[in-house]
Amino acid sequence: MDISLIAYDFKANTSQVALLQLIRLISVIAFVPFFTKKCYERNNKKNVSFEQEIKNEIKEEEKIENKNEKSLLFTIIIGIIGGIIGYFTHLPAGTMSCSMALVAYFNVKTHRAYMPLTLRKIIQSFGGALIGAKVTLSDVIALKDLVLPIILIIIGFCLMNVLVGFFLYKTTKFSLSTALLSASPGGMSDISLMAEDLGANGPQVASMQFLRAIFIVGVYPIIIKILFS
């Protein structure tokens, strides 16, 4: 969304930019979680089915005594307040980043922030619906003129994600899942929501994705202006 709006200032073809950005987002969300899950299973030598992992996570959440419906209510209220603040500050991905920061502060101070697995799945469903709702007939028809750019974008971003992810894994203390998801070239909110389901550190992934979004929106347009001015 931010890049599509920036395209206006550079007199780029905004419809093509928006379409290619949508393809990038779909390819990232389709490839990164699948690849991360396979690496996570191999790295931990697990043959447990995904459904069994979900059941195990539910059992772990049920053992948490101090995180109940009241904690969930406080978490949602604080998250909404943070989202409203982010919306009116017009920060890149502000609604999510401010909500995340406020809830994180609440959890650091009280250790009572809580988001059950079932609700996370529902939120992911809404995220999928949001992406699907952006696809129109004109977008599909326009694909025939953008076959080569689409192929280059899909292959290029997938390779970049793998290379950067493994580089982070080797040079930092990130787990393999956390490194791969942190290196994801898009889908900040969606990837962050999937992180814990894929064995990654959710806060670390969200923080890295937030920094990426700030750089892309704040620095990348300046680089383009310098290169083409």
TrEMBL record:
- Per the UniProt record, which residue ranges are transmembrane? 18-36, 72-90, 146-169, 210-228
From the UniProt record, list the coiled-coil ranges.
Answer: 40-67
| GO BP of this protein | regulation of gene expression
Reply yes or no: does the keyword 4Fe-4S apply: no
GO cellular-component terms in the record?
Answer: membrane
Listed GO MF terms: monooxygenase activity
Q: Name one Pfam family in it.
A: AbrB
Keywords per UniProt: Coiled coil, Membrane, Monooxygenase, Oxidoreductase, Transmembrane, Transmembrane helix
The answer on whether this UniProt entry bears the keyword Coiled coil reads yes
Name of the protein in its database record: Ammonia monooxygenase
